Amino acid sequence: MERGTETVLGTLAGCGGGADSAAAIAPANTRPGGLHGEDAIWQETNCYMDLWIELLYGWGLDPRAALAFTVTQDFEGDHFTFFKYPQADIEQLYGTVVQEMAVYDTLEAHVAEQVGRGHTVLVEVDSYYLPDTRATAYRRGHVKTTIAVDRIDTAAQRLSYYHSVGYYTAEGEDYRGLLRLDPALRDNGDVLFPYAECAKRVRTPLQGAALANAVAVQMRRHLGRRPAHNPVSRWREAFGDQVGNVLARGDAYFHHYGFNLPRQLGANFEMLGHCLTWLGEHGYRVPASAIRGAATIASECKVLQFRLARAVARGRPDLCAETLDTLEAAHSEVIDGLLQSFGSIDPAHS
To answer: Highest taxon of the source (predicted)?
Structure first.
């Protein structure tokens, strides 16, 4: 591969667009489940999950199949587990190996090399240079996020990438900022190399019964890894102190809290609901109570977030007792129903 030429993953060669324009990733009929559809309760989950959802859609795959891991989400004391597709699950179901890249040259050189080999590069970048974040961080603040680059033209200084719920293009000054080519970034010894991963599609994805059976086994394995105690019960033990902290620190802190607790819990279980629907479509008996409970958690977390926003605006605490009651019961309903239908595999013997 020669430097200064356009490098593109063949199946997506037609994608592009202006500096802040979204391009069509795939026809609507290849996006089953509509994980980012207008009817989603949480249209965005977290940057890494949303990126992978769109990347899988872009490859013509159904991202719902690999969502069984969401049953493992726990309350971590200061946040709910920042849920991400496990690399082992991605490899088993979709034939895609994800591995950390060794970054020692310019980021541009590494991206060009890997994309030229037909791979996709997932890299942590500064949203300050991401044109699709005009409404939030673009040219306003330095916020870490992850993008997936599958097309780069080093001569024109232009790259195309998946981020959040879309597919975009960056060029010129944005390109140089993202790839740290400007002298202030390139020559600053205090700026660490970014974390980057390479996604290599090395095997044909599973299909049909083989895929469905593999997903069911993943569900059993992940149920074996579920939290020992109901995470909502553990959250409510700390909730009163956390609400007091949110009110004391104000609106900006509330947005961080809302993203890392109610949003991560609610979006996680909305994704689980999609996986359960997928399993039902592929012949597995999924209790209606589990699907209903997952939907309840997704929607009630949004209720809780609204209540907290109102509490911050009024300066009065709201312990959200009824909402937490509902969430706690729904979580137990989901896990109990899935254990009855799928059972679990002890991680030590899986």
So the answer is: Bacteria
